[in-house]
Amino acid sequence: MSFVTLGALLVALLVGAPVAAHLLRRRRAEERPFPPARLVPPTPPTARRRSLLEDRALFATRAVSVLALAVLGATPLLRCSHLALSRRAGASVALAIVVDDSLSMRARPGAGGVERAGPARFERALTAARELAGGLAPVDAAALVLAGAPARVALASTTNLTAVTEALAAVTPSDRATDLDGALDLARDLLRGLPQSDKRIVLLSDLADGSPGAPPISGTPDIATWVPLEELEAAGEDCGIVRADRSSQKARIRVVCTAASTAAPGPDPAAAERDGGAAAPAASAAGASAAAGRSLEVRAGDAVLGKVALDPALRAEELTIDLPSGAPEFLLAVLTGGDAIAEDDRAPIISAGGPLSIAVVVDPATTHVETGGPPPLEQALSALDLDAQIRPLPSVPEHADELAAHAGLIVDDAPGFTPEVRRSLAAWVERGGVALLTLGQRAAAAPLGAGFEPLVPGVVRWSASPAPGLDPATAGWLGPSAAGLADVAPRGRATLGAEASEGAEVLARWTDGAPFLVRRPLGRGVVLFMTLPLSTEESDVALRPAFLSLLDGFVGAARARGGARRLAAGETGTFDGYHDVKVERVRVDRGQGPAGREALPVVEVDRRLRVSPPLAGLYELTLDGERSTRVVSVPEREIDLRPRRVAESARAAELGGMSASIDGSPYVALLLLALLAAELLLRALGGRREPAEAPAS
């Protein structure tokens, strides 16, 4: 409040003037002798109540008038502002509101990045969204998109403004990562085709999507993008626990620290590491202030079972803490001190929190690398950084119990499987396992009694490739990189009978229509088989980007089918083959242990049961009566608080801004006129009563 506004409101102190006027109005009555009064005995004098008000109605009217004058004087100076769009000549608007509901939006703005008691950025963004929705006209259209990964449509374009208000009321914060590009693409798709000529996207986000070096956020020629609130822009320092596992008497906890306030936007840290780590020193220096003076503790209730101090220069590190014998089952990993986001400073530690296990059976003699090192398959899996443990095996296990520890299995050009191995593999896949088989010359030369059924029905044959290259139009499962396989020219390829494709889905074909990649469901699991081996002597498929897309899809399938013991917040878990699925989040008391359960909705999409946990923590699953435990962790890239850049066109003043929401001057003036009329009426009535009372006085 400014000094001028305060001075205008001080006029209200003049409300004491009517009080003084009414008190001074009573004067001492003129005394006149009354002869008969001498015959009456005198009465002892009593205190006169000279301070009472004579006409309370008139006094109240005058007091309210003075207060109304004070309000009238201050009203032009008061501004209760709200976010509003600027319309082009009053035309209707098609608006898509993008609200960021990711983990970083839980931060509370404050100096130094330390958590504050004020509202979080998410709450401010939601308030701004409500203000924009409140300013829409009945002819406007609005849509709501949530930018937490994966980006989702909360409300399709509609002119029902009540539905917009209800959709905003249902939005809650989450621990997801940020997907700004996906959210903006969804918003543009919702606006295209609408009759309104003025189409706009309003982005309410802290812009921290883990890619500060990405192109600036801007609009398109037909759809403008507006980023109105600079106060939401990410800043500050944060450390978070992204993984907490327990094995034997040791707790292994991964801690990631960043400091956005001192790190200028630049290349993506992950990309910089792949390019030689040029950006690592700057990021490390930024993380120093976030970790300085803090420590990592393992707690059982209020008791601290282990503790280790954080390195002030820590950026990302896996710390190990020894646990005492007899430690309880439920433990918490806790970061001491404070930072920008409190929700990622603690995580449950359980044995079920390990990464995804992928078993790999590759013959190094056929897939060796001339420069040395592991086979290309293992190098590709490591380069993808899919949070999976790669377990090289000399051969496929013969017992299902040995396969139970793995969620995925990759076998390169095996010379068939014995009946025992086939039974074990089929039983493992039917329980939810995911297998990837590559078929080459050795697979076609399987010895007597060996084969691939029921994983791959029919006979595998090997011959020269009659038509080189794949048809990219049939390889959508491999993404944009499928176009790079159009010129593949292998020495030979495997051919399959028609029975191999029956009841299966062909994910990619050769240019002559023959299957290249096939996905075959089996019980709760799935088998993928490819008609080329991974040997670099047969083809260069293993060296192409499309092969990385294939491995990424394979690991994603293993993770989605319940094989992952740990998911990132927002990832979707799929439970194929199960009929009764129940997922409950175990609420954890801030200082103790489990404090209740909260059921999550399980939805069916394309006859597949799916669940997408939005919050990090401990989850209990009941799958057809079998109970198991899963952990949902914080996405590591969400701790990077360096914001994306914004183009100047997305901050343009003509798109909108803050607008005054109240101007009560006309209403106060009308009130004053009514009070003046009331005062005149009361004075007129009072004047009529005084002559009638005069003889008595």
Features:
697 residues, alpha/beta, five-stranded mixed beta sheet, 14 helices, 31 strands, 24% helix
Query: Quaternary arrangement of the chains shown?
Result: single chain
Unreliable spans: 47-52, 111-115, 260-288
The percent range for strand residues is: 25-35%
The pLDDT mean sits at: 80
Q: Gap between N and C termini, in Å?
A: 53 Å
What is the general shape? Answer: elongated
Number of strands: 31
CATH class category label of the largest domain: Alpha Beta
- How large, in whole angstroms, is the Cα Rg? 37 Å
Residues in helices, as a percent range:
10-25%
CATH architecture of the largest domain: 3-Layer(aba) Sandwich
Total domains, how many? 5
- Write out the strand line-up for the largest beta sheet, numbering strands in chain order: 15-14-16-17-22-21-20
- Structural class designation: alpha/beta
For this structure, what is the CATH homologous superfamily of the largest domain? Answer: Class I glutamine amidotransferase (GATase) domain
Number of helices: 14
The largest sheet, given as strand count, sense and whether it forms a barrel, is:
7 strands, mixed
Q: Looking at CATH, which topology of the largest domain would you report?
A: Rossmann fold
